[in-house]
Amino acid sequence: RRGAIIRLFESLRDSRRGLPRQTHVARYATFHNPISGSGRAAELVGLITAELRAHGHEVAAFAPRSREEAVEQARSLDESHDALLSVGGDGTHNTIASGLLGRPVPMLPVPAGTENVLCRAIDIPPDPVLIRQMLETGRAIPVDVAMANGHPFLIMSGVGFDAAVTREVHRHRRGPIRRRDYYLPSVRLWWGYRWPHLAIEVDGRTVAENAALAIVGNMRLYADKLHICADATPTDGLLDICVFTKPGRWHLLKYFLLTKAGRHTRCSDVVYRQGKRLVVRPVEGDVPYQVDGDAVAAAPVEYTIQPGGIRLFTRVAL
Length: 318
Hints:
This protein is α+β, with helices and mostly antiparallel strands. It is 31% helix and 30% strand. The protein starts with a helix and ends in a 5-residue tail after the last strand.
């Protein structure tokens, strides 16, 4: 954080000294969640705005009060804007991507949340100078957008245990979510979770009839730096699904350790597939699903893919 501020002041100093600046005047919009990262999003928006304006660019700032308002504002953003900056956590980026789906305005996500999985996956730090340089290159690429019962997501979705933890965290939320907010619900559910029975189809073919947990990936990175859907890439027009078939707390621990070691897909009771249409159905009971770390609803859930659904700035090859 201190290094980013120093670089920002150096950039402002250089602009006052008449050093060369970007000649193209671009139009940008920033969207942020005021409570993301305990207020870090608002602070970061101010630094980024100052950096962009110091180089002659126009910046409009939005701080929508609800998901619905954010989606509508992003959807109606004038197409003359060169980019939209989403400043916040993965939930904020998911919301903004939902509004930009199918539109030409590219998105640059900026990390200011708890886990920041998307920004880790595409290597974007909270550095105003670097962000300005990325925007000025204009190098945004089309990426796939996954859909869960019509709800867009960029990174991943889970049906079962991880979604149950997410639902508990959000149910008791009283402000910004911190990493430690997941610890107690995870331990409590690990000990007393009632495991579901999931039937799973990939492109019309049944691949599991009595599974315990399913993770769907549009990108390979999951929370806690896990690569559950290890072959997923958001530019191939396919969804990846990793199915853990055995229920129980000790099997869950085994799967976690194997995934940490990158060996879970070699396990005989793990099913890994790719496809364009995935369906996860519970045999019975209330089984939640989550997308990009936000609890959404209860299964059954149908997953589809929209190839090249949005344009995204990235610092890595996808």
